[in-house]
Amino acid sequence: MANLFDLTGKTAVAIGGNGVLGSAMAKGLAEHGAKVAIVGRNLEKAEEVVKEIVNNGGEAKAFSADVSSKDSLVQVANEIEQWSGGWDILLNAPGTNSATPFFELDMDEYDKIMDINLKGIVLTCQIFAKRMIEQERKGSIINISSVSSTTPLSRVFTYSVSKAGLNSVTQFLAREFAPNGIRVNAIIPGFFPAEQNRKILDKERIESIMGHTPMNRFGEAEELQGATVWLASEKASSFVTGAMIRVDGGFGSMTI
What we know:
Elements: E1 11-15, H1 20-31, E2 35-40, H2 43-55, E3 59-64, H3 70-84, E4 89-92, H4 107-134, E5 139-144, H5 157-177, E6 182-189, H6 195-198, H7 203-211, H8 225-232, E7 244-247
Parallel strand pairs: 1-2, 1-4, 2-3, 4-5, 5-6, 6-7
């Protein structure tokens, strides 16, 4: 059974792999044998993740890119291709957030969040999936969504909209790429205190979250590794595409 999750010989590209959640998922892929490209705007943070992977016996390299820029993504795709020859797994984990009230929201802020959370993933899939198809590489694309994608959360209007759009992108591309042997799925994390949401986790909001989470706790970033490795593995999830996999402590099952 262990061979179901063996990623030896595979190359994974982790967009946003320098963040709290993205880095944990990237480390999980590396621990199961994948060679990992850590891509982020902050190269220094990406290099820190690479160092951890290498110290743990894995293989990885840091790359810098801006997911909202097509030129930047094309450049980093070329750099990764020179390094690894191609890739089999694409993990899309960039993200930004804001708690600006709706009537105070200006379009510059709206555009910034949408550019990173939604447009950036569309661009990434255009560039990286196209090369997978050209190289006739079967593989897996894993998008990181949110519980706010299915039931919008208070205080995070634009974030919720962007993640709802991401779910639609995931299902559309699952249909689009299936004939090429590329599976496209999304992970829906519950509440994991990360950079983009920590600033709005006041006492009242934490109490509300716990009241809607049957497991009565926040998730740990490492708890996303299992779903990530499963979706990345061609053997373990070969018939899974267009799925939204919840890792949310039961948040999505709660009503009153």
